[in-house]
Amino acid sequence: xxxxxxxxxxxxxxFSTGSWAHxxxxxxxxxPLSTPTTTPLVLxxxxxxxxxxxxxxxxxETLVYPQSGPRANYELPxxxxxxxxxxxxxxxxxxxxxxxxxxxxxxxxxRRAETISTFHLSYVFGGDHPSEGGLDCSGTxxxxxxxxxxxxxxxxxFDQYAWLKSAKTLHKSKVIPSKSGGRKGINPGDLIFWGGxxxxxxxxxxxxxxxxxxSDGTHYMFGARGKNxxxxxxxxxxxxxxxxxxxxxxxxFGSLPGVS
Length: 260
Known about the structure:
Layout: H1 4-13, E1 41-44, E2 61-64, E3 88-90, E4 93-95, H2 99-116, E5 122-123, E6 134-135, H3 137-145, H4 157-167, E7 170-172, E8 175-176, E9 191-194, E10 206-213, E11 219-224, E12 237-242, E13 245-246, E14 250-254
Parallel strand pairs: 5-6
Antiparallel strand pairs: 1-2, 3-4, 7-14, 8-13, 9-10, 9-14, 10-11, 11-12
């Protein structure tokens, strides 16, 4: 039987009637993130008390515009947001978070993913923070999720796989469904795991997070895909299309602990 939460996710994210445009997902208009503006440096010049041909009065001030450089920081939207993972009690029964709370979480995840995709980061094996110039797949997941209610997310992809397995939210599969939904279907916010992407010595070696479908049925996912892979914004850490059907090396997917 499909739980209320899963059904709500299906209806809410297969709702999409718009296509991806300018790095944004779904038809919903999202306010652009504020970009640090280049603030002129005002440099007052020394004044002369006795102007002459060799020492004329200078202009009162001159404006020097510094060249634009890399982002000074990598702040993410919803930095103060916390998803409540505590089970809800209804008499003798417990329930997962309400569909409204889950949809709010997924909106936060999606907007954060879109933000990170604008940092123009490369895939960097072992990268934990954008300030290092890039991230790896599991580092991206930890950077995305750890401060919004998932502080216990492990660092590596195989430990993140075990994290879901321990929470009993993992669905083993070698196929990405053509449509999201259903008790065993893939849903927005699910982590997706692959193996054999490199000689990791573990069953699992790669992880991404599923964002949902566009109006044409195209699946989208977010993460650091690899050194030679770039996404919709031309970056290694970006939003990517996800092909449905049998996936080489696909191990499975599942919801974050405490979400479903």
